[in-house]
Amino acid sequence: MTIHATPMIVERLAAIVGARHVIGPDGDQEPYLVDWRGRYRGTAEAIVKPASTAEVAGVVKLCAELGFAIVPQGGNTGMCGAATPLNGRPNVVLRLDRMNTIRAISRLGDSIAVDAGCILADVQKAAESADRLFPLSLGAEGSCQIGGNLSTNAGGTAVLRYGTARELTLGIEAVLPDGSMLDLMTSLRKDSTGVDLKQLFIGAEGTLGIITGAVLKLFPRPRQRSVALAKAEDIEAVLDLLALARTELGDRLGAFEVMSRGQVEVIAEHVPHVAIPFALDAPWFVLIELVDTLRGIDLSAEMEAMLASAFERGLIGDALVASSEAQAAALWTIRHSVSEGSKRAGYVVSHDSAVPLEHQAEFVRRVEARIAALRPEARIVMHGHLGDGNIHVLAILPGIAADQRETLAPIVSAINRAVDEETAALGGSISAEHGIGIANKERLNHVTAPREMALLRQVKGLLDPRGLMNPGKVLSD
C-alpha cells in the first residue's frame, strides 16, 4: 500500500479533531516521542488528540485507510516503552488527554464510568466526592491515565486488598483497528453470557485496540488507617511477618511493602527533600498499612499488638507506628520515591518479577547472588509489593553516560537472563505490573511456552491483521 505524504495526514487529522489538536513534524513533538526513563525515542508523522470516542474512531479509520500505524499514549509514565513510537514505519501517536470526562458515578452500584484519558488521581478524587474509594494507587497517579492503567494491567500498592486493574474493571469501551467501536460499558457484577471480551484489551498495551472508556469498581471509603514501618534482619523474617499480619489482622491489612536497606539508602542520597526518620541499620524495611471502613476501632492499637507479637517472635528488631496522618504520609513518601531515587543513582536495570510467596526468599537470594557474580560493581537494591509476591529487583550501574548506553546491551541482557531464569524456575512471571512494551518483548519470548506465544499471535492477527496497532510492542514483529 502506498503511504501518503505527511502533510496530507496532518491536514486530514485536523479535519477530524481540529487543527489545534494535531502536532505535525514542525511542531513540538518531543514530549511524545521519548519514554519516561529516556531510553526509547522514535518519530511520528503527527501527534493527534481526539476529544471523543467518535473522533478516536475517525482517526483510526483514517490511519487504516492510509496505512499508518497507531501508537496509543496515555500519560506516558510507563516503564517499558509501550507508548513510545518506533522509527522506520509511518505512524501517528494518539493521545487521550482531552478525553477526561467522569461520565457517571453510582453510589448504589459502587461504580464509576470514565473516559480513558482521565488522570488516575482525578478518578480517585471523583470517587471520594461520592464518599467512595477507587483503590488503584501508583507513584505516577498524578499524571498516569486510566487507559494506560488498564492497558498495562497496573498493580500498585493496594493489590493485596483490592486486586489489579484487571480486577477493578467492570466494563470497557474500545475502538478496534478498523475504526469500529466496541461498547462493553457494563456495570454488572455478574454476567455469564460468554467470553469476557474486555479482558482481551486489559494488559494488551494497545496492540489489539484503543480503550476509550471504562466502568470501574468503587469501594466503601476507609474511615481510618494505621501505618507502620518495621525493621527485619532477613527476607524470611519479613515473610513470617506477613503471615502473622494476615492471621491477626485479616482483611484490614491494606498494604505490605518492602524496601531493602540499599534501596532506602539510594533515596536518602538522591532525593534530599524526602526525610528518612529512622536509622538505616537493618537489611529490610517493611511498610504496613491497616485500613477499616468502620469508625471506633483503634487500628493503631491493633497494629501495635501485632508488632509486639512479631518482636517477641524475633521477626522484627524495631518498629515505628505513625502517630498522625502527616507522619503516615511521610512514610509513604519514602516508598513512593524509589523510582526517582534509583533513576538518579545510575543506569537502572530493573525487573518486575512475581513469584509465589513460598519461593520468595529463595528468589531474593538467588537473583542477588547471580547479579553480583555477573557485575560486582552493580548496586543491587529491592523494593516492592511483597504481599502479592511482586519484588522489583534493581541493578544500578553507576557512572554510565548517555553515549555509553549502546555498549550496555550485553550487560543488560546477561542480568535480565539471570533474573528471568530464576523467575521462571520458581514458577513466576517476568512482568507483574509494568507490562511488556519494547523493553521486555524478547524476554517474553524466552520465558513463554511456544504454544502460548502462537495463540497470542493468532489473536493479534484476528483483530489487527495489518499490524497497525502499536507495532513492535509485546509481540516481536
Automatic annotation (TrEMBL):
One GO MF term attached to the UniProt entry: catalytic activity
Top-rank taxon, per record: Bacteria
One Pfam family hit: FAD_binding_4
Domain FAD-binding PCMH-type: 40-221
GO aspect biological process, one term: respiratory electron transport chain
Annotated transmembrane regions: none
Cofactor needs: FAD
Endpoints of the signal sequence: none
InterPro entries recorded: FAD-bd_oxidored_4_C (IPR004113), FAD-bd_PCMH (IPR016166), FAD-bd_PCMH-like_sf (IPR036318), FAD-bd_PCMH_sub1 (IPR016167), FAD-bd_PCMH_sub2 (IPR016169), FAD-linked_Oxase-like_C (IPR016164), FAD-oxidored/transferase_4 (IPR051264), Oxid_FAD_bind_N (IPR006094)
Keyword terms: FAD, Flavoprotein
Protein family according to the UniProt entry: Belongs to the FAD-binding oxidoreductase/transferase type 4 family.
Protein name from the UniProt record: FAD/FMN-containing dehydrogenase
Species assigned in the record: Bosea psychrotolerans
